[in-house]
Amino acid sequence: MNFEDLTEDVQQWLLYTKKKKLSNESLYSALNNAKQSIYQNIPGSTFIKRLEFVKAFCDEEEINMESKEKQKINLVFANGVESEYLEYLNTIFDVTVLKPEKLNQTYKKSQVDLVLFTGGADVSPEYYKENLGNQTYINANRDEIECDIFYKFKGCKMLGICRGAQLLTVLNGGKLVQHINNHGRTHSIQFQNGNTVDMTSTHHQMMWPFDLNKKNYSIVAHSTYHQSNTYLNGDNKEIDLPQDFVEPEIVFYPNTTCLCIQGHPEYSTCSKQAKDLCSSTIKKYLFNNKQTSSKEVSFIDEQYEHQDIGIKIADPYYGFDSVVTQNRYGIERSYSSTTEKVSDKKSVYKSSVEVYKDYLMKDFKDEIYNSTLSIDNDTLHEDEELPIDPL
Questions:
Q1: Are 156 and 109 within 8 A, CB to CB?
Q2: Domain segments of the chain: what residues?
Q3: What is the DSSP string of 175-225?
Q4: Helix (H, G, I), strand (E, B) or coil at 360
Q5: 71-304: which CATH number, 3.40.50.880, 3.40.50.300, 3.40.1190.10, 3.40.120.10?
Q6: Which residues lie below 8 Å from residue 34, measured CB to CB, with a gap of 6+?
Q7: What is the pLDDT of residue 149?
Q8: Does the predicted model carry a pTM greater than 0.85?
Q9: What is the DSSP letter of 232?
Q10: pLDDT tens for residues 147-204?
């Protein structure tokens, strides 16, 4: 929901709250004490979701300030440059495109920041050991080219969109549902922090990472409800779905640093909110909001010149580093149980204590929050031991 769509009293409350630059703990209290007329009109179905909206709003200015100077990245297209994808990524980064065939001639693999796999034909089911379904249409030559790119650039961060997401799922050991319906239209998806957004969608196959060890994938976003009423395998038979099944929309594979987005944030018809959430997800999972280590590459083709396109980034994750733990069909943020002596109390306070409070608030553990983390805002005891974020 846009700021302009909120009621006037909610707008005034948010602006006043943002101006005060409150800590996460104080924001928790401010929302808890807000008038009922204000509280009910803040977007979110639960207290935690409303709190996340307020935090995102209060953090937006800082995030936008940081995004004015874009990270420079060196990008490889797995199957040729496509302008829509390049324009979209230029809203997030300052992109230099490298030709894959020039690897080890004009640049080294260590200089590649991102490899992009784009949309297109279905992935051949031979790669995940299924028969070819009646409604599966493949491009074997493209499969071969892009699989070669995957292994040639293995170790680099990778982003897959639509077909690219499905291919990366297969190359990470997953498989695909060979036919579904009702996903050839814009529909609502839900992120793990509770944010929902209408996402462009044009696919008839679906990522299926669920046979993998749950440590090897994370469902970052899923359909808010089951869009499809059919899920066919290569034998054109219905797949048995677990009771807690969700339709994956964004999947992350941590072992290979592959992020898979099923929808199309690059489409001009995609809403700004959906683009922003996908942009934030790309930065969080692939770049962790940190500068890349890429060095400048002297070779740049004239055909790859581009024009920067400005956009505001609204990060739903508040920029907090986290360790991701997984259940079978979802993820949640948690923090290391490892503790060590606090040497730099002021820096650790913000990076660990306040984030840890936020994690507890996310789960609405009032008793733990009130009893365990009653730490003064400005001081820490000399013998204090705290969970340290290892990232």
A1: yes
A2: 1-68, 71-304, 342-391
A3: EEESB-SS-SS-EEEEETTS-EEEE----SSEEE-TTS-GGG-EEEEEESS
A4: helix
A5: 3.40.50.880
A6: 13, 42
A7: 97
A8: no
A9: B
A10: 999 999 999 999 999 999 999 999 999 999 999 998 989 999 999 888 899 999 999 9
